[in-house]
Structures are given as structure tokens and as C-alpha cells.
């Protein structure tokens, strides 16, 4: 049963024999020391481990923010380790969403403008951007905070804006590095539950780094790293339960997604056209 279900969900991230070595004077730091990993569509994976174990390094490699020293990272069939800087910019813009610990909102923009910003990089018109941003702010429960500036919102509300911003571009994969690191425990639980529900409903892949084992229990799989190596991969939810949750979510989400698809911009930014990549 489980094998069948897994077959249906393709591998979206494949990592093979991945190394990242930093040179510090005469010594070498093996931040990643031979990592192999497959992550499937619709999975919520938590990467855990002690401080300095290589969690952020792995996330940064997967997100195309840093080049590996050696090894393969294949995302949706493309070898990320072979892309140049310009190609990586296109990859990040088209394929991935980021949720940061420090929210990274633009202080001079209100909630709608912050969520709409990445849509402008995709060439979406102003009115459509604002409409889409409002839909996603509603999705994260911020309908009453559309015109609030970041400093007029709590940490949890700001992180919800960050989540809406990451999701509004409809990315295949969402990367989150300690997304609740600045939140109190109640808000942390709310934000994690929200992330879990939304990615399940939309069959997206979420990869989250956390040093907190309790938070990792929200994930479907918990990948533990020590000294740059994966030491355990723990299945956290029964695959049959996950399939049921995904199907229920997919049904709920169908109308919303169809509406969003209608709004997909016809044109991409000139820069993207010029880059001529076909990720
Ligand atoms: N730019 C760099 N130059 C040299 N060493 C680095 C660099 N970035 C990371 N490292 C080293 O690589 C190792 C892994 O770091 P990484 O930030 O991935 O750990 P982490 O598990 O995310 O830690 P934390 O939970 O404290 O954020 C550490 O030993 C760190 O000191």
C-alpha cells in the first residue's frame, strides 16, 4: 500500500554523495560529508541536528543558494550543481519559496505589498498582484491586516505574511530555515500547523530546518544530521493517513488553485526571457 502511494508521488529532490568543505586556514571543515537523500512531492521534511551539524548548509545547497564542493542535487530533473549564478536566480524565482527566521519583510511596505513583491519579479500586473496577495493573506488568516506595516504586526503575524509571500508564487518546493525561531511556543504551534495544512492541501514539498525536536514532529519525515552526515531518517506519520489528508486537502483546494492558475502571467520578465533557460 505504502509502496504504491510512494510510487505515485515522484521524487522532487534527489541528493547524491553531497559534500561541502570549507577551508579555514590550514584546516578543512566538512559541513556536509557525503549526504544521500530523496524527498518526494507533497512531503514535509524536517532537517534536525545539533548546532553546527550542517542543517543550514544542506538547506542552502538544496535551495541553490550555495554551490556544493562535490555531489549531485537534482530538483525536478535538473542538476542544480551544474547551474551558473544567473541560472540559479531563475531556478529560485520559478521553483522555490523561502520562509526565513527573521521574516525578511520590507519595512516600508504593507502586508499586501510585501506578498505582492515576488509576483512583480514574475512580470504580473499590479492589479493582479494585489488581488493574489490579498487571497494569500486571507489564506493565512490576515484579512484584517492587509494594510498593516511590518512594525504594526506581531512576530506571528509577520511570519504569516512571510508564509503568504513564499506561497503566493505557487512554488513547487518551500524551504524554511528555523521559521519559528523568533516566536513564542503558542504562536510557533499555530504557524507550524498552518504550514503543515497548507502544503498538504496543495501537495507541495516543504523542507524545514530546526534544531528543536518537538517542532520536527509536525513533519512527515525527520532527517537527523550530525557532523555533516545523515544519521537517521524517521517516518513520522503513516503513509495511508497522509494520503487521506492530501486527498481531502486537494479537493478543498481545487477551486482555489484553478482560480490562481487563471491568473498565471502570460509574460515573464525580460530578464528571464533573455536568460533562455528552460528549467
Ligand atoms: N562560510 C563558512 N565558512 C567556514 N565554515 C562554515 C561556513 N558556514 C558554515 N561553516 C561550518 O560548517 C558547519 C555546519 O554549519 P551550519 O551552519 O550548516 O550548521 P547548522 O546545523 O545549521 O548550525 P546552527 O543550528 O547552529 O545554525 C559548522 O561547523 C560551521 O562552522
UniProtKB/TrEMBL annotation:
The keyword Transit peptide does not apply. PROSITE patterns: ABC_TRANSPORTER_1, ABC_TRANSPORTER_2. One of its GO terms (molecular function) is ATP binding. Pfam families: ABC_tran. Keywords: ATP-binding, Nucleotide-binding, Transport. Residues 13-252 form the ABC transporter domain. It comes from the Bacteria. Residues 241-279 are annotated as: Disordered. The keyword Transferase does not apply. Belongs to the ABC transporter superfamily. PANTHER family: CELL DIVISION ATP-BINDING PROTEIN FTSE (PTHR42798:SF6), LIPOPROTEIN-RELEASING SYSTEM ATP-BINDING PROTEIN LOLD (PTHR42798). This is ABC transporter ATP-binding protein. It comes from Enterocloster hominis (ex Liu et al. 2021).
